[in-house]
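Field reference: sequence -> structure
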Amino acid sequence: MLAPLLSRSNDSRYTVYLRWAAFFGCIVLSKSQNCYDGFEEGMVYQLAARHTAFAMRLESSSVEIDSAVVLKADSAGWRFEKDPDYPGHYNIISAWNDLRLVASSDENQPITVGAGSSGATRDAWCFLRKKSKDVFSIALQGTNLAIDVSGELVEEDTPTDTWPLKDANDEDDKGNQDFKVIQTSCSIIDTNEVFRLVPRHAAGKALDVDPVDLLVIQNESDDSLDSQKWVFQASTDGYYNIVNEKHKLAMSLASSYQFEAVTLSRIQDDDLYKFCPRNNYDGSFQILVKGRDLALDVSGSSPVDGTVLWSDTPSNDLSQAFEFRPESLSSPTASPTAPSPCDTSFDTSVPYSFSAMHSGKVLAVSVNPYSAMVFQTTSDDDLATQWQLERGSTFGHYAIKNALTDLYLNYDLMQNGGDITQDTNPTNWCFLPDESGYHNIVPEAGNGEYAIDISASNQDDGAKAVLYKRSGATNQNFLLAKSVQYSIVNAAGVWEPVIDLDLVPAAAANLPDGRIVMWSAAARYDFADGGGKTFSTILDPMQSPPQHSGANLENTHHDMFCPGTAVFEDGRVFITGGTDSKVTTIYNPFQGQLGEWIEGPQMNVGRGYHSMAPLEDGTILTVGGSWSGGCMEKGAEVFDVATGEWTLKTGILTEPMMNTNDVQGIYRADNHMWLWTAPNGLVFHAGPSITMNWLDVSGDGSVTFAASRTGDIDSMMGCTVMFDIGKLLKVGGAESYESGATTNSAYVIDINNGMDVDVQRIGDMTFPRSKANAVVLPNGHVVVVGGTKTTQLFSDETAVLNAEIWDPNTNEFSVLPAMKIPRNYHSIAILLKDGRVLSGGGGLCGACGMNHANVEILVPPYLLDSNGNPATRPVIMSAPSSVTIGKTFNVQMDTSGDHTFAIMRLGAVTHSTNNDARRIPLESKNNGGGTFEVAVPTNPSVALRGLYFLFAMNEDGVPSVAETVSLTSN
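Structure field:
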């Protein structure tokens, strides 16, 4: 297998990896790597090596051309200018002397500075975003090389003869090519505003004044106190006097010493300060003293009222972090008496869409959590294109809030080309109408000179919204129309805070004790490395806060990326194929705290992106998988857990099940099949093709046509779940794996009547989705999370953040609240033991910028009361740990009311597919006193052997925390 190579497209941006997928010549474009182009020209940045304490700099401002670049603790600044010849690339220029960072295109050559590109060197650099929003790999234009800091530890003043260009894939995964880009320029403050200065280290505090000693102190925030309000008087070079609104005196330091208390004094030219964003981009600022190496600091980081503000050495401590919150003036100006030219007729109770006159497209926001971008798009059917209007603080104006992100429309610079962005603070906008019913959207601060403009009158989806001087052009005219509203009520579920991980989870499985085992690939954040190892982690979501611990698995010699997954009947997890196409691994969660990973018997056929399914007798079926191990017919084989042997089923070929028109042919067509052991003892193949089939694994096996989903499309990367005995819900998918239309279609497929299949088209999902995940809940409802509206693999731009929930009683979908993080390709979702839903991952694509090394947990509606508060749960007091198929068992509840019961088989999920999980509702009899006699179905093809979560639900439908039970055949 060839190593990944970074390639360039015709527009000179790094765009794709070319990766040999098999020895049989199956080539695939496997990931997109667009250069990040969001840096501000004119700003000054630091380039800090992430795995050291040092940053990139020149030895001094007097260095000459060809001088080496070094790492030092006291870093110097760099400016970024967009390269005129290579879109998306920057020239990196020293803020000291305008020399540029240059390198030759040969590996292991030093980084130097020069006047620009020459025959031997290049000066255009591509910033490839890593998993963190401000961490990048810096790649040389036209090569597969990036700046690399050799070794894990670097001493100060390390010259670049040990700091060369290396292969941009950073295969050792030590972070040697990770550079944190830190903006160092300080901010301009509005001198017409009044602010409250809020310390970040202590909640609910504000800077105040001791009325006796005129010391600046920290006190409980009180909006009524003018002594907590501050204005800024501009001086020179970006410095300001900080003046108290009540006392009309300025902050002052009596000396240049550390730990000097800040007092109020008359306004003087030598008591000046500047306000610099902190390096972690949390919206807070450091207040630096002019002419002294000092910053303002709340002494001792104390949270106590009355604590003095003093001077200290600049640091990243939160006691030096301040948020500037605009306040009303103590003597507000009178409201305008003249009629406003702005249109004031809008209904603030409903959202609007803004349609551009020149293109007919609507304004939308990016769902990428690291982007505040506003752009135009064709679709207006989701929350990203809906805007809620709120009355502004100035008569006739509105604040404009996006319905998806809950952020306000804003702008970065009042100039031609200034980006339209989103922010937490509202901005006043005026809608200036014309005779045609269209409006200019004009920021108040621009005095009517500027308006929102679609850059360069671009007609395309994705064209940016910017500020530009008003010209009467159609790309500045917008039609406001009331939008479709989605009913998201208070009790419709809650997303808990994001849980950060040390890898991107592309696969996951339930463990019997409620923990979740997850893994990525041979690298934590990139699938392309390969190399016979896998990074894993185990999350305990039942703890508060959730805890996780991981391991680097090398003993099984298995890169478990894109595998088949299954759960043995005893709870062990079976992982097969993937990048290492024939290798298998068995995870035993019962050995020690982190379990034991052992190498399993190799398959007869190398596979990747194949599917697996548990069978009635406890064996495991697998089929398909041409992504790895060769593009060829990959018929079925069955694994006997008891003997450890694989048996080929020569009568079960993939060709009848690949009846799709995927543009990449067999390479994709036999991927991620939906396989379900049915009540008739056969295996039902539900898709992704429209054509569905019966598989008989007896003897050599056979395939028989079952039915078609009439009216559907082939649904690559769609989902199926077994929400009831012999009943499947199918949702979403796309015509091809990486191209074609994406659907919001939904079907219920009933396989309870022998070999007759009943296929019912039901109401569509609200959003089309590809690469989503579907999870059945104990009450039979199904949650659909994540995915994208298009088939582009590594992109967040069309991500669907709002989850949906399907009700089997009405066949309708309802929209749930939005996740914080997009869940795109390589994301997972799985049911937790307490009835919540875990969703995580997405990306696993190296420096692509769409890596999501975290998870979120959904609290579904059934765990909340009508006011959105946690509902009272029933409690299972006792239940057996093992029950026999076809028998009854007793469950003792904490209350005597009516309860219903369901068991949920432990699942394993990857690539939108979980063929293990199934819900089995159980019949029960109330024997009084909280005791229930519960019956397990007699059909072993319904109640498959294995471990299940037993849930009890009270009369309100609220589920208990589950007990783990084993279904056995004797």
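Note: Residues 252 and 271 are 5 Å apart (CA to CA).
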